[in-house]
Design brief:
Length: 295
């Protein structure tokens, strides 16, 4: 075989050994697609891909999608490649990057099928911080007690960009809020997502702002507890980047966050594989208003 996958933990993570010359082979693509469903996140250590090879790899795995064209750093040099950086020469509005310090799922506040997978390559690293943590939301659901599963199925959660960046800015100005609304939608997503293949996962992240039908504090408290549950050590893989690393993860079944860093020189290149399943829909105004009521 030209490719091998070494498990990292029982519930998450795999280290992929393959030559760059074989990255686009049928065997590699079939292995990656299979292992993404079981391992969740796959690491190609120091494989050192170009943008062109990363895009070709992305395209072999599915249709390419770019949901950040309105965000500074997108398409800066190569179409459909988003540069994740705090470098103000490339990104004059770092809100979107600073928000990644908190648990999130890519594209969950966009009215489109949820992206299937994210591909990220390390170009320049920070002197400290900058590791990426991944939490398996399939396993988080599977390991819940049965009585809690019955309680959570059928619940609907409001997700929005404003909640995702609230830890960054606290209470944003009206001008910032208007920009957030232009970038994305306020979405209703199921708390428990039953995928087309029958598997179930939780849908969680800092962008989850309340539960429909519950007063705001009650819903947020439940979401906070579930986020802590999903981030228990056995379900989390922390990747400490090396230059040239390539990582791909199942965006439909994992949440992730970055260990905070301040180095403006850190640069990562992201490409995204489109999904076909659309778990949620744009939120109804009445449901949004309800989650901001105390009782």
């Amino acid at each position: 075989m030209s490719i091998t996958v070494e498990p990292v933990k029982p519930h998450i993570g795999g280290i992929v050994r393959v030559s760059p010359d074989h990255l686009l082979d049928d065997e590699t693509i079939e292995t990656v697609q299979r292992e993404l469903e079981t391992r969740g996140v796959l690491v190609f250590p120091q494989i050192d891909v170009s943008d062109q090879l990363q895009l070709a790899f992305t395209d072999r795995l599915g249709d390419r999608v770019n949901f950040t064209r309105q965000v500074p750093g997108s398409d800066a040099e190569t179409p459909d490649v988003y540069k994740i950086t705090l470098d103000r020469k490339l990104n004059a509005e770092p809100d979107y990057v600073l928000g990644t310090f908190f648990w999130h799922i890519d594209g969950i506040t966009i009215d489109q099928p949820l992206p299937k997978a994210t591909v990220l390559s390390a170009r320049t690293l920070s002197a400290s911080g900058g590791a990426t943590e991944f939490a398996n939301l399939y396993a988080a659901w599977d390991l819940l007690p049965e009585d809690e599963k019955r309680e959570y199925e059928g619940l609907t959660v409001i997700h929005c960009v404003e909640a995702a960046v609230r830890p960054v800015h606290g209470h944003p100005s009206e001008e910032r809020r208007a920009r957030y609304k232009a970038m994305a939608a306020v979405m209703e997503q199921p708390l428990v997502w039953t995928h087309e293949d029958g598997r179930k996962s939780l849908l969680l992240g800092t962008h989850a702002d309340g539960i429909v039908g519950m007063p705001g504090p009650h819903g947020r408290a439940l979401l906070a507890r579930l986020q802590q549950w999903a981030a228990q050590p056995d379900l989390v893989y922390t990747h400490k980047w090396q230059p040239g690393d390539l990582v791909i993860w199942n965006n439909q079944g994992l949440m992730h966050r970055v260990v905070p860093y301040t180095d403006e020189g850190r640069v990562m290149h992201r490409t995204t594989i489109a999904g076909k399943e659309r778990p949620g829909r744009p939120a109804r105004d009445a449901n949004v208003e309800r989650i901001y009521q105390v009782a």
